[in-house]
Structure formats: C-alpha cells, structure tokens
Design a protein that fits this description.
Strand order of the largest sheet: 3-2-4-1-5
Shape: globular
Number of helices: 15
Number of strands: 5
Distance between the termini: 51 Å
Structural class: alpha/beta
Length: about 325
C-alpha cells in the first residue's frame, strides 16, 4: 500500500505526520537527494550542520522534521528523498553556474521541460510582483491569473515526474510506503494510480482534516486559499469562467497580504497557522470583486498589521449593513 500524506511545512502538523509515517516501512520525502542526508540520519552529522546546507524557508520546521526522521530511522524505517523535478532543477542551476548556456540546456530533453516550466513560472511571478507595485488593479488580477496558470503547469510536470519515479520504486519494494506530498500536489494521486494501475493500493490522507473538523465543526479535508483554488482550477483544466477566476484572484490578493509568511511560534496557540488560515478564508469569502478592489487600493502599501485592521474594519462595516 502507498499512502500519500498531504500537508504543508508547518511544525503544528508534525505529530500527525509522524503517526502516519510510523505505520510504513519506506518513507519517501518531497525533496531532492542531499549528499549529507544519510549522515544526518545516522547522527554522524548534527542537525544544525545539515540544515546549514539547506535553502529552507522554514528552518524550525526543518529542524523538527529532522528530529522526527532520526527517530523513525532508529526504529528501522527506510527514508529516502525523491523529487525528480527539483533534482533536475538543481542540476540546471549547477550547469548555469559553470557557464553552460540556456541553448545547450534546452538540447537535453528532460532538462528542457524543467527549464521551460521553471522559466515561465519565474517570469510570470516577477511580472506579478511588478504589477502589484505599479499596475492597475485589473493588471494585477491578470498577473495573478497568469502566474497561477504557469504554476499549475509546473505542478503538473512535477507530479507526473515524481509519480513515475515513485511507481518505479514501488514495483521493487516490499512493505508499505509513505509519500510526503504538499497538499496542493494532491493530483499526483491520479498520476500514481495511472502508473500503477490496480496492482498497488494508493490512499491519500489529508493530515489536517481531523484538526480542521475540530476547529470548524465541518468535514473539510484541507483549507484552500483563493489562490490555491484558482491554481487547481487551471491544474484540472476547468472550463474558463472569467468572473469566478477574477474573484478568486482578487480575494487572493487580500488573503496573501494578511497571511503570516514566517513560521509562527507555538507559544499562544497549538495550531496558529491553521487557525489563521481558517480565519482569513472566512474573511475573504465575504468579499466581492469590488470589495477587493477597494481594499487593495487601501492596503496595497501598508504593513500586514495595519492592513489587517483596515480589512477587519471593512468587513465589520459590511456585516452591520447587512
């Protein structure tokens, strides 16, 4: 059996992840192979020394994750890093540093796919950033949608490549396999089923689902931001609906502005990120496209804390008028 453990890189979900991982024989992480990873697992290298080599946006999560992985390794679990797209992307970066031209890289079929996908995503992201500073609201909305399309294409390629690598490994593996998967990559379930057919059972598990149900009273598998929903619409090739896509893009601008990007300490709450995401999702769901346009113009250049005050006050005013 293969379990796809769907979650995000937050410390508050590690206990759920550990419990799932422990029930499996082989654990496949969503990261490219690192030359010092095995030494870290065997405690031949300190976790701090290992993390120094990583370009991680979540240092505390990475540290706690390494502690969990060491514990599982000592209990006999086999742990490997499997992420072909990112592995190839690293190779491309190394080639560029050595002075290899993009034209030469584009001659290598598998690297060509990754290079073009990543270039498109990077270009549209930079365009979006530029529009948020200088563009009209309509231009910013178009920037959001263009990046979401490029991100969906990149995600599709990553999922296909990783599913193929995992399927090949599964055919030669005895025992149960746990696959770490970012929640936005849950379409990989489809790719994996396609690769394996009915030979192997594949089960997706949304690690946050019980927590979300506990906090909201609703049976929701995963909190999805407006930007997540927009990206998944493009990922699944949903029929175009400009009004809905514009609304999701508009709400995503407000959501992202108010979302805490750094790791939140677990001092005041056991699940701070989940609670914040639930709160913000409920908040932006009450906003129309026109509401988002008015708010964006007000909070565009404000810091997060002040922007949060402005949006909260605006929504409270809407509530009092309804």
């Amino acid at each position: 059996m293969i379990t796809l453990g769907l979650s995000s890189h937050r410390i508050e979900f590690l206990d759920f992840m550990r419990a799932e991982m422990e029930r499996h024989d082989l654990i496949l992480l969503e990261e490219p192979p690192h030359p010092r990873f095995d030494r870290m697992l065997r405690s031949e290298l300190t976790i701090e020394e290992y993390i120094e080599d990583l370009e991680t946006a979540f240092p505390q999560y990475s540290k706690m994750m390494c502690i969990v992985l060491r514990e599982l390794y000592k209990k006999g679990r086999v742990i490997q890093q499997v992420e072909p797209y990112l592995k190839i992307l690293e190779k491309i970066h190394e080639m560029l540093v050595r002075g290899v031209s993009p034209d030469e890289i584009l001659k290598i079929p598998i690297k060509r796919e990754v290079y073009l996908s990543e270039s498109k995503a990077t270009k549209t992201l930079l365009n979006y950033y530029s529009k948020t500073l200088l563009g009209t609201f309509e231009q910013v909305i178009e920037g959001v949608k263009e990046f979401a399309k490029a991100d969906a294409h990149r995600g599709r390629l990553r999922e296909r490549m990783r599913a193929r690598a995992i399927a090949n490994q599964a055919k030669d593996t005895k025992g149960d396999i746990y696959v770490e998967v970012g929640y936005l990559h849950f379409p990989m379930f489809i790719n994996l089923k396609r690769e394996l057919g009915d030979d192997v059972k594949v089960k997706p598990v949304f690690l946050q689902s019980h927590l979300i149900e506990k906090l909201t009273g609703k049976s929701i598998r995963q909190i999805l931001s407006p930007g997540d929903i927009l990206t998944l619409r493009y990922r699944f090739g949903k029929k175009g609906n400009k009004a809905l896509e514009d609304l999701l893009a508009a709400r995503s601008l407000i959501f992202i502005k108010l979302l805490t990007q750094d790791e939140i300490p677990l001092d005041s709450s056991e699940f701070p990120h989940t609670e914040e995401e639930i709160k913000l999702s409920n908040l932006v769901e009450r906003l129309t496209y026109e509401d988002c346009e008015r708010l964006f113009k007000k909070i565009r250049f404000l810091k997060k804390e002040r922007a949060s005050e402005v949006v909260t006050s605006y929504v409270e005013t809407l509530s009092s008028q309804s």
